Amino acid sequence: MSMNYECIRVEKEDGVTWVIFNRPEKRNAMSPQLHFDMDDALGKLANDDDTKVLVITGAGNSFSAGQDLKMYFRETANNPELRAKSQAASNRWRWHRLTQFPKPTIAMVNGYCFGGAFTQVCACDIALAADDALFGLSEVNWGVIPGGIVSWNVAEMLSHRDALYYAMTGYPFDGKKAAEIKLVNFSFPADKLREETLRVANDLKKKNPAALRATKEAVRHVRGMNHDQAYQYLAAKLSELNLKDKDKGMQKGLSQFLDDKSYRPGFESLKN
To answer: Would you kindly state where each structural domain of the chain is located, as residue ranges?
Structure first.
């Protein structure tokens, strides 16, 4: 499986696959080619047995500065076919491929994260940031709204007040604030970010993969359901998991808890 690309790097490390935006001279702004590369890579990695956890980050001191305005907008203005293809790839990988990715996904926000880059942060299951990472929805400052589905992303992820405040003012904020308003789960000093990301990734890869996939799908899909709909859906989801799980995780878990006494939930040390 060829994983050589023009605008991204793919690195595998003991079950953790790093997909790295690789345009550091442009603060990893997203060009049409980057979208094509990401769309192809995520499609392949979804079925890659060596990938237990996926981490998305950026090369250099940026996560991503959003869309490359020149290459994504201006240079495709007179090329409707290229614009349509790049928009389709952009929408597909940044939302559908990420939200439906069968393994856990982590956004590691190591620096600048602006505009359209919010989408892939929101699409990942978990998001971690450097304390000094810089976030911003600057679109209002040049007379437009946050593009694509970014407005929907922030409305879903943030409180109503925070979404309006940062979208309307365009004020930037750091990783600590991003964690406070729950755009990301936690922030860490920049020199500890990779270590903490690997800690979470290594914990995830030890867990039952079928249970992880069912859990992330369940949590995403019950949003917006009422009580009765959620009850029916989750009952069906549990039955599906029991049928598909080759490792029989539920039976093993019950045995560990009831028979072996080797798993005692609530007695392990507290972690973030």
So the answer is: 8-205, 209-260
Contact residues for 141 (Cβ-Cβ < 8 A; gap 6+): 170
**What phi and psi values does residue 81 have, to the nearest 5 degrees?**
-65, -45
Q: Which CATH class is domain 8-205?
A: alpha beta
Cα–Cα–Cα angle for 253, 15, 175, rounded to 5 degrees:
95
Phi, psi of 82 (to 5 degrees): -65, -40
Q: pTM of the prediction?
A: 0.90
CA distances from 184 to 139, 174, 226, 237, 270 (A): 21, 11, 26, 27, 20
pLDDT tens figures, 76-128: 778 888 888 989 999 999 999 999 999 999 999 999 999 999 999 999 999 99
Residue range 6-63, pLDDT digits in tens: 999 999 999 999 999 999 999 999 999 999 999 999 999 999 999 999 999 999 999 9
* Coil, strand or helix at 12: strand
Neighbouring residues of 109: CB distance < 8 A, sequence distance ≥ 6: 57, 63, 121, 127, 128, 129, 130, 133, 135, 175, 178, 184
Q: CB–CB of 117/139 below 8 Å?
A: no
State the Cα–Cα distance between residues 210 and 256, nearest whole angstrom.
18
Q: Give the containing element (helix H, strand E) for 2.
A: none
